[in-house]
Specification:
The protein is mainly alpha-helical. The protein is built from 11 helices and no strands.
Length: 188
């Protein structure tokens, strides 16, 4: 196991200037404990996170489709595992989660193609944006674009600093290792 220059910050080492964030959302997840190495960034990140993750126009289920596909495409085992857990908690069947790895049909398919376009082409084509706006609304399309950017940044941090998947998610993943693995059939 490699040693990260930015392992998740412990409670004992948590920066005083962002103490309230530890009790809010940031203390609960290793991704934000890693980000706590830069308190000003984590403090600035908090309001954007609130909108992108909690108050966006996509709603909880479509949010998870976006994040799962972005995590998969980024190669972020952390984001994939954490959001498989969230998707299951929302009632996603395993088949829907696994479909996000490929080319699902319906609105999930439109979203998967949009995430791919943003990561590959760095934009949505006009006809793709119009079809997506018709299906989910323009505000949701804009939120989708922002969400892919947001989770790309998290993916860069997680992968650069080899942030460990949180223990509760690791325990959950032991019950369904193929579903929680970013590469089913591998040992990752």
């Amino acid at each position: 196991m490699t040693s990260s220059p930015c392992p998740p910050v412990s409670d004992a080492d948590w920066p005083e200037e962002i103490a309230p964030l530890r009790e809010d959302f940031a203390g609960a997840l290793n991704v934000y404990r890693t980000m706590a190495h830069h308190p000003a960034l984590l403090k600035a990140w908090a309001p954007l996170r609130q909108h992108v993750v909690k108050e966006n126009a996509l709603g909880p289920e479509l949010t998870e489709v976006v994040i799962l596909r972005a995590g998969l495409r980024m190669g972020s085992a952390y984001e994939w595992a954490h959001h498989v857990s969230r998707a299951l908690a929302l009632g996603f069947p395993e088949a829907r989660i696994n479909a996000i790895r490929g080319n699902p049909e319906g609105v999930d398919g439109l979203i998967v193609k949009a995430v791919d376009a943003l990561l590959d082409e760095r934009m949505l084509a006009k006809n793709q944006e119009a079809e997506l706006a018709e299906a989910i609304g323009r505000k949701a399309v804009i939120d989708l674009i922002a969400m892919v950017g947001f989770y790309s940044v998290l993916g860069y941090l997680l992968k650069t600093y080899d942030t460990p998947i949180d223990e509760n998610i690791q325990r959950e993943a032991q019950k369904m290792p193929a579903l929680f693995s970013i590469a089913p059939g591998s040992s990752s």
